[in-house]
Structures
1.
Amino acid sequence: MSSKCNSQAGQLACAKLLSEQGLRQRILVVDDDLLIRRLNAEMLIFSGYDVDTAEDGAVAWHLL
């Protein structure tokens, strides 16, 4: 990605651009608290990312 994607605003703009091009970035959210995990996942999905979630490190490694 270009250097304009280094700031938070730039990252959001890049995520939207990639989403428009059909090239969504994928993020793995790992947290043992269900509500926090769900909140983070929903915000990232809203921002245009594909999101997977895991409740602990073992599940995260399996998903990777």
2.
Amino acid sequence: MVARAWRSAGWWRDRGVTLLYGHSATAIDPAIRRVRLASGATLPFTKLVLATGSRPIRLNVPGMDLPGVMTFRDLGDVAAI
């Protein structure tokens, strides 16, 4: 899977943001502000964003493959429609 960031890694780093691509979070403890990764590592956080990288669901219904039938997941998709 290819990760896509809206800004460069340097832009985020300059603002004190740590980006981790391809790491699964298995637990979040908001009381102590730590997230546990599938590797067993734990990381502190001030603010936490979990980006799932999901794709829009395409229903298995007649007509879903017709021209002009679209899915949307974000504002970019809506603008394209």
3.
Amino acid sequence: METVYLETTIASYLVARPSSAPLVAAKQAITREWWELRRPLFACFVSEAVLQEAAQGDIAQAARRLAALRGIPKLQATVEAEHLAEAFLEAALPERAAIDAAHLSIATVCGAKYLLTWNCAHLANAQILDRLEPIALRRGFALPRVCTPEELMGESNDVH
């Protein structure tokens, strides 16, 4: 079974109140569809970084995010992952993206096949990933495929 690291934005879009903004509403719908139809086909994981981030903000929304993530196995942030995150920050990510570096490094060191996210600023960003990939490779790791739920929907006949 292929492995997926669920970054915090997945839980956020999954449980958020319906948005009146068309793009956000579409992302919410795609996330819900992926969660219901595709998630059971993968071994999904989170990390303590995901749970800490999900617990922030509006108390009711945080409770919904954490409830959605309950029972999903947690990957551990190793010293190796911490060092890789630091290298990612030095090379291509701004300091404010430290949590994003942590997500990517944990997923990388733990060997996740995919990192699922709606964060296109720092994670699902081809130019940034191009700069981070050689860093991971020099340390003996391959980056996971970073993608959105829309990209991990599978073939159309798999879903319907």
